[in-house]
Automatic annotation (TrEMBL):
Belongs to the DedA family. It holds the Pfam family VTT_dom. It is found in: Cell membrane. Its main location: membrane. PANTHER family: ALKALINE PHOSPHATASE LIKE PROTEIN (PTHR42709), UNDECAPRENYL PHOSPHATE TRANSPORTER A (PTHR42709:SF6). This is SNARE associated Golgi protein.
Amino acid sequence: MAEWIVNLMNTLGYGGIALLMFLENLFPPIPSELIMPLAGFTVAQGKMQLIPAIAAGVFGTILGAFPWYYLGVIFEQQRLEKLADKYGKWVTISSTDVRKANHWFGRHGTKAVFFGRLVPGIRTIISLPAGMNRMPLITFVIYSTLGTTLWIVFLTLAGYLLGENYKLVEDYIGPISKIALLSVIFGFIIWIIRKNLRQRN
């Protein structure tokens, strides 16, 4: 994976960074935790400039968020509610739960998008509820760009400062990504258990 990223970045330059970050949003196994630190290391070698490298990473990431956003637009709330009523009984989710979740996102959507872009494992999927809740595209782009820029700057500077040890960024952030995803799954399981207990009582 690392060798492929290096070759693509060396061949396409800033365009390679943008392409890799675009693909990272569509295929999460391609880690931004490896792409942008490598870009930072390349900057430290004098082969790239810092600001254009960061800009390319942000551009590719935002571009990669659009497919998920529009998937959410197509997969609208009413369709999800119907699926919840039809199949949700297996995980005790109803159309009412979907409406409550969407109502929450409607109230806190901008914060969710901004902070979601800073959380490994959540960064990609946060675009889906934004589309489902018809968050205005301009608002979505603004808050996604703000959160993404902070994340990209952090990763790029880490790679710049670590130099040849840029891979350490992925080693440290990788477990955080897993913990974040497991926390979401664990929280969802707890919510289901508590809901079942309330229904029995």
